[in-house]
Amino acid sequence: MQFITSGPVVAMVWEGEGVVASARKIIGATNPLNAEPGTIRGDYGISVGRNLIHGSDAIETAQTEISLWFKDEELVSWQPTLTPWIYE
Predict the structure, then answer these.
(1) Residues with catalytic annotation?
(2) Whole-model pTM?
């Protein structure tokens, strides 16, 4: 708890087709030493113990974690106008 409260936190919810896999690819491997360059952990991570970003590993886990940070009325459903051209 001390680490998570040691500085600013930006909590957000992402949604979309394949969002868990996409997010985990952007975030990178848990151990920054194993994370690919170009990922958040690969470029900015220093140690596993001071993990600078978290991403849920499954939709079910995300639902639980979202409820820890947000009330239902704080979440806004939004769809970009390009969605029909991105997802067929």
Answers:
(1) 54
(2) 0.80
Q: Is 28 exposed, middle or buried (0-12, 13-18, 19+ CB in 10 A)?
A: buried
Annotated domain spans of the chain:
19-86
What is the rounded distance in angstroms from the CA atom of residue 9 to the CA atom of residue 23? 18
Listed in sequence order, the residues at least 6 apart from 77 whose beta carbon sits closer than 8 Å to its beta carbon are 15
- 59-87 pLDDT, tens digit per residue, is 999 999 999 999 999 999 888 888 888 87
CA distance 32 to 52: 10
The CATH fold of domain 19-86: Alpha-Beta Plaits (3.30.70)
- In one-letter notation, the amino acid at residue 19 is V
